[in-house]
Amino acid sequence: xxxxxxDKEYAAQALNISKYYTVGEERVAALKNVTVNIKQGxxxxxxxxxxxxxxxxLNCLSGLDRVTEGEVVIxxxxxxxxxxxxxxxxxxxxxxxxxQNYALLPVFNVAENVELPALITxxxxxxxxxxxxxxxxxxxxxxxxxxxxxxxxGGEQQRVAIARSLINRPPxxxxxxxxxxxxSESGSAVLELFARLNSEHRSTVVVVTxxxxxxxxxxxxxxxxxxxITDERS
Amino acid sequence: MKGVETTAVDIALYLMIVxxxxxxxxLLIILRNRFIFxxxxxxxFGNRKxxxxxxxxxxxxxxMISGALVMRSSMLTLxxxxxxLSYGHVDETITNFGNSLYGSAFNYSTFxxxxxxxxxxxxxxxxxxxxxxxVSAYDNTTGVPYDxxxxxxxxxxxxxxxxxxxxxNGSEVTRLPRGELMIDQMAAKQFNASPGDKLTVYTGNGxxxxxxxxAVVNDNFRGYFDSGFNIFMxxxxxxxxxxxxxxxxxxxxxxxxxxxxxxxRTDAVMKVLNSTLQTINTKLGMGLAAYPVLQDQLNLIxxxxxxxxxxxxxxxxxxxxxxxxxxxxxFYMLAEERxxxxxxxxxxxxTRRQITGGFVSEGFIYTLLSCFAGSVLGVxxxxxxxxxxxxxxxxxxxxxVRETGILLxxxxxxxxxxxxxxxxxxxxTLAIILIASYRIGxxxxxxxxxxxxxxxxxxxxxxxxxxxxxxxxxxxxxxYSGSELKMLEPAMLGISMIMISVVWLAVSVTGADYxxxxxxxxxxxxxxxxxxxxxxxxxxxxxxxxxxxxxxxLVTGGILMFFSLEPLMLGLIKPRRNSGGSIxxxxxxxxxxxxxxxxxxxxxxxxxxxxxxxxxSVSVLGSMINQAAVQTVAKQSGGYNFVVYSGNGGxxxxxLTGNATLTGSISAANLIYDVGTSFTLNGSGSRPFIYSLxxxxxxxxxxxFASQNRYEFYxxxxxxxxxxxxxxxLKNNSSLAVIDITLAGISKGNFASGAPAPAKAAxxxxxxxxxxxxxxxxxxVAGILDEFGFQGVFVRLPVMSSLGLLEPAFPVLxxxxxxxxxxxxxxxxxxxxxxxxxxxxxDLNLITQQLTMDIRGIVEMTEIFIAMGLVAGTAxxxxxxxxxxxxxxxxxGLLRAIGFTRRMMSASFLLEFVFIALSGSAIxxxxxxxxxxxxxxxxxxxxxxxxxxxxxxxLVVISLLLTVAAVLSSVRAVSRIEPSTAxxxxx
Lengths: 234, 987
Hints:
The complex is a heterodimer of chains A (234) and B (987). Chain A is built from 7 helices and 10 strands. With 234 residues, chain A is of the alpha/beta class. In chain A, helix 6 links the parallel strand 7 (172-176) and strand 8. Chain A is globular. Chain B folds into 4 domains: 1-87 and 295-455, no CATH class; 92-291, Barwin-like endoglucanases (Beta Barrel), CATH 2.40.40; 574-637 and 847-987, no CATH class; 649-837, no CATH class. The longest helix of chain B is centred in the N-terminal third of the chain and has 45 residues, at 293-337. Mean pLDDT of chain B is 81; it is low at 1-5, 451-459, 577-581 and 749-755. Chain A binds chain B through residues 59, 64-65, 84-85, 88-93, 97, 99, 101, 103-108, 116-117, 119-121, 125, 164, and chain B through 35, 39, 42-43, 46, 340-341, 343-353, 445-446, 449, 986.
């Protein structure tokens, strides 16, 4: 694993990354020579129209997808060449994810969903449960710990997903359209949580959104179009 | 049998070791990933109905294997019990110049001498002097004759060695008055006799004896001696029947100890007996020999049972194959269903290995439960199959089986059977699950998160090419080893797999899907055209497993072809625009989905086609064997209905003509004479051999055989222009002979005994016949008959007379009934008329009926056995249907929103699954017919192609009904889906 000591001030870096997909006979570029430097503790929005490559950039940055060219560095570590096992372990300890569709496991209750990442990293079951209750308290759902996902509203499910993303105290939290399925009130509550995380826990939060209001709540905004960064401002 | 048992124990042990290793690996995975295990277990039992269907589908393999094995063990025990029932405490027999039961009579004093010389052996419980003959008898009280009875005479003291007689009322028969008779249950049933009846016994020496039936005895170890239908008498009185006072025909030897334990001492006892008999033979100039009757029969019947059970195991492979496909289908579908959850897990940091482990642990639980249930079910199947066989062959031994309760006591379940059934099913299931789980673990996280159901694999270009390349290498190795070993099975397997891997490679590189159809067609051509097997030279050997292999590849070819013919089929089936009505869009919808999900559809087709193939193949094979058997009996009968042998000489023809009950019933009654004598072929210097000499009366009332028999000729000398000319010449020419095909050494793979030909006589060869008083005559072979049912060298009767062989010859009467006469009624009248001549009446019509009934019985039993595999097929479709309801919820909502009625949705859904079941069944039926044609072509010397359309139609209808039953709840669920909620549904 390659160390980038001088880049440790950055939570995540994409260095000249490109991502190509093959559709039939055609090779389509989703990202073209993109370079992004996300500072530690920043609150970033990746915006752009549909098909601009927002989600692809998030997937590549978070190691969910592999880049075709270039390099991705997280917390000073290059993840581009990691094996599947290494990247999986790294993701479990260093990243949290929030998805538009909440992605809760229906067979588990709220507490079991939340404690899952802790168990993956080898935390003892009793300790994981304690940690889960703490983060559930943080998102205001401690009293719902025994509910099944289908017994919760959309906003509540997304807060459970945020709690799950927090349990291992990851330095970076990735969120792909986290308010896309929520009404404005629930969406605001979720954004408020991200803001608190960013300010109180100094977590780096990266949100993919096409919602201007959501983007306006962040500190840094990166705009993509046709797989290229067209604007970046803080 | 010890070897077979050891093998079974070894197999059980190896399978258990493999299973325990897999189980240990699975447990390690479970313990290392407890939270994953927890997740997958909850998934497993979250839907109990589905879990039950999965377990039902997975247990088929274990059930079929353990069922076949339990049947095997039970049949082995039953056959052992039947053999011990036949011989009881008699382990060895001693006869003089004969076989195990019959020989020349010898003096009682010889018995005394043998008995004295083995008296000190602790291995032997005792020796019993006996007279054992086959006789005919007539019940004067009931008026019923019977011609195949055993006459068993032993001293009363023999009860101490061979066991007591028990009467049918359960009490011991303590005495048998002098001169009176006892009969066993089977004989009593045949005669409708009871104690007090007067029975006249006829023997081959022309004597008859009338005695009173003192008791009817149980068909136990003592009463069922040999094969039942016995008459018992004191040895001291038996000369009244046998005509040989002071002489016996058999010595029964009982080993020390209980029956089966005693049989284990046979080898040691045989050494003692052989040594004693050698001394006595030398001293007295006799031909005494000892026979291990019990042991021989046990070995013979055990090998026959093993052949049947091996066949069942081979046939069960089709159902097991269907079960394994079901396992793979189930796990891919579970993965598809949970794809989004799995994507989430991967995003949270769960590794591919952990995902694989999760599926393995879930599969492990399913495997344990299903294989346990399967083994238990297999025990039940084994019992039913055993019971069925006994019922089927009731005419052979069901009476004593039922009356002695042997069936129930023979039902045997051994630990090895259950262990092999459980472990084989578990190992196969776990192996498939491991492969499926590994493939599932390779999915793409991004695709999974997007919940793209078709994004199951993550095979890169390298993997796409490397897998077919690996298969190609394995195929090449198989072809090479097959060629080296000169074995057709691996060679043909190698060729077939080479074709599949090359096409796979081509499809991977070019993306041309239609090439799969080319592979399918090539497989069908290679396996379906018998000539293509000649790719390998004739010195390649094969077993009947080649036809199992051909079946597997023909069905695979059919499935591959299905997809290439799909556009054509859909074009034909697709409704036209002007056909109108609500059914049109429903049909379109029904046919669209199977064509989109090719792998799943192929698996569903395979589930049905393998099982249907197995069942129809058995039916086709049964039809062919039945046809061949009936034709063979008809051909061997020479156009006659009865063949009557008489050990008593006499004028059989006049006995018939003088009988009023037979007037007008008989159109031909042709007498010939048969005697065994020595021959040499082409000169006295050649090795002599014993064969039958058949004398044909050429004139008078008995002179009709030559002109009235309908035996076909294999060949005859060119100077004769017709079969009639050959027979005509033989009637008048003492230097000619006609021989049967066996003596010509020509094997046509027929149902003959398989005994080697004593000589290979050809047309024009000279046979020298040796008669009494050093006489000899030579005859030239003028014709070879195409039959083996009645073997012999046919000459005109004066030839036999001149050799002094007419006197010892026994008459054989060939009878043809007049048109329209019932063979059943005629049979009874014939037996009545001929009983005084101690006849053996062979009813060829009855033999044909019995053959047809036995074959049909075996076929039906086997079909039922394989049909249990249909559970796999229907359970598979049931699971797929349940999954489809969930998977297509949004689609269903949309269709309902745009105007599909509930009824249209149900119809569409039902049609889709009926289409799959019907297509799978069609592939199975067509390929089994193709395979049947191949078998008929390969075995053309004995079989010709035949099938029963009605049973095939019935089978397809049953499979469709089962399909409808399996998918009905899903069809109803589809109709209940509300469009408003379904459209918003996200799985």
